[in-house]
Specification:
single chain, 192 residues, alpha+beta, Glutaredoxin, 5-stranded mixed β-sheet, two-stranded antiparallel ribbon, 17% strand
Length: 192
Amino acid sequence: MHRLFNALAFIPALLAPGVVQAGEQQKGRATDFTFTAIDGSALPLSTFAGKVVLVVNTASFCGFTKQYDGLQTLYDTYEDRGLVVLGVPANDFGEQEPGSNAEIAQFCQGGFNITFPLTEKVAVKGAAAHPFYKWAAAVLGDSAAPKWNFHKYLVGADGRLIMSFATSIEPGSHTMRAAIEAALAKATQPAG
């Protein structure tokens, strides 16, 4: 019965506009990729193996920058259950992330009290896109690639890409929370 409830709770997330779900067949895993943390240290996604990861391309001077508050709330709410929010600063859309990594870190930590991990600034679209973003677009299709700042990818505890969420889907929305809760529930279910 519990599994049925989890499956039913997940249905609205699948039907929401701006949500693209991944198929079962995927080449590679998110845990195959490495970012550089905003402090310059290596940040392999394999560090988060066994956790659900929400990867979000961010920008400091965007109309959606207020989503940092919702992302931090998600992290605070679900971190103990295995969620990691990973902020990926990018200057690809409207040049709304022009600062250095140090300036971005100061903005996020000082202005929004961000405690979730941040990567260094990278490209998330085009030929120069970080390999994770090229892989995600290959898995979900170009229509699920970031079209603006605060696009979100949900990665399961097994490293598989679950789905993407358009910028307009707020971190605190029912759609986002249902998808995260379903991924966390799946991560804690015994295999078989």
